[in-house]
Amino acid sequence: MIRFVNAKINIGLQIVRRREDGYHDLQTVFYPVGLYAGTPGNPDSFCDILEIIPTACDGVEFEFTGRKVDCPLEKNLVCRAAHLFWKAKETNLLRCIGSNGLRICLDKHLPDGAGMGGGSADATFTITTLNSLLDEESRMTDEEMAAMALRLGADCPFFVYNRPMYGEGVGEKLTDIPLDLSGYWFLIVKPRVFVSTKEAFAGIVPRKGGIDLRRLAEIPIQNWQGMVKNDFEDSIFPKYPELEEIKQQLLRRGAVYASMSGSGSSIYGIFANLANAENARAQFVKDGTNEGIYLLEG
Questions:
Q1: What is the reported pLDDT for 41?
Q2: What was the pLDDT predicted at 179?
């Protein structure tokens, strides 16, 4: 079975409280991007390719190709996800696939350290794909898969549902919102900058959220800029001024809204028409200083 793994962006990210356990409560909107990557209208390779193959060998084997991820196997999220699922459902899984084991192959294209949940998506898609191999009686519910995914990372549960959702808590409390950005275009710029999650949170000062992001769909997108904010920008932009410059370039080049995603370092702009987005992309490509530039349909 082959699955194409997409990423996400955060539209607004408000850090509202430091918890007693050391984590932070946040409010954000998760929006999937790259759902149509690779189709004629979206030729950019902005997806990972996950393949799961029954084998005669015992247990689970792994193969990783494409973009190299500097991570030992015991910490790799795909490996951890597979082993979690295997431990929970081994007997039923082997019965349903009629084999002794599995080979899991991941061809990696999504950028690392981008604040777009690429590794989290790989892990959760591993869980959901393995679950789809079970018969209906043995399958986990979405809620059960989300609980398993949460053991791997705070933004992993979102990819079980993979549709626009409001997130709170550490990002695991999810509610559907009626946000539809089809017809818009996303230009995503990934600079040659890495911002660790630890570094990003170290500069955060929690505060009450500026707006109720659950009502984001009620606010015209032309009014988002200056109102819908990623709190990480306050501490990260002074350290990495090139990130703020990319955001300003996106706005100057026609984006109706631009923001950093997650804790960075990717910056995205939302464009109302393809021509402006393509012109902006051409200028970023000409600059030649960024790691990746991706144009995606909303």
A1: 63
A2: 98
Read off the pLDDT of residues 225-261 as tens digits, 9 standing for 90 and up.
999 999 999 999 999 999 999 999 999 999 999 999 9
Catalytic, 8? Answer yes
Q: What is the dihedral of CA 92, 93, 99, 101, to 10 degrees?
A: -130
The per-type count for the chain, helices as H runs and strands as E runs, is: 8, 12
Distance CA 242, CA 42 (A): 27
Annotated active-site residue 155? The verdict is yes
CA-based end-to-end distance of the chain: 26
Catalytic residue among 8, 108, 190, 247: 8
- CA distances from residue 181 to 40, 185, 254, 294, 296 in whole angstroms, order as listed: 19, 8, 17, 17, 12
Predicted local confidence at residue 45, as pLDDT:
72
C-alpha span between 194 and 113 (Å, rounded): 6
Q: Residue 75, CB half-sphere, CA atoms under 13 Å: how many?
A: 4
Region 268-284: mean pLDDT is 97
Model confidence, pTM: 0.95
Q: One of 122, 155, 190, 229 is an active-site residue; which one? A: 155
Residue 67 in contact with residue 49, Cβ under 8 Å? no
